[in-house]
């Protein structure tokens, strides 16, 4: 039998630690991403309609491209493009160069918000995301791991100070609930509950019931209590329609 010296034990310990260096929150998010589609997120282009606006979303580890297309009240064809290089709006095929920084920011946040929620939980592994395990909890008789997400100021976008909570099912790793507080465009706090699911192209797309509290200054950590006590108001429904998933060319 070959015996390990104390020095060898040290190397083995360091090796094991380096192989298991991800936090518990990161491991839970990894499982959730895999359950919702895993690598299919970054190897596909996704298209869908949301509130009469057509979206085309592409997101890989090193690049992204979000497009939304719609007609305004006068019939003009609007196309917004947000990618690694910035934001561009065209009207009837003509680029608009007169947008102020304020409106570029508003349009960019609007496009990014839809893409972010459509891709959840894939985006939770972005470098600017900080994840922590709050603990165990239960909603409607189902057990969940509760994860809190915050963002680094650098790389976290204009809304880097938003806070999110994700309820990840202990049995299936699905994100059945989420809540978030935001400070842009007036600020507020919301909670979403999955209402229906579409599985297309290996990706789990979720529709939501979108709730708000009477007092929108409450901490996001209070949303589960308000949900369970029936003190949240149904604000809207978040439904993705006409979903298409196209594999990216290798």
From TrEMBL:
PROSITE patterns: PROKAR_LIPOPROTEIN. Pfam families: DUF6503. This is Deoxyribose-phosphate aldolase.
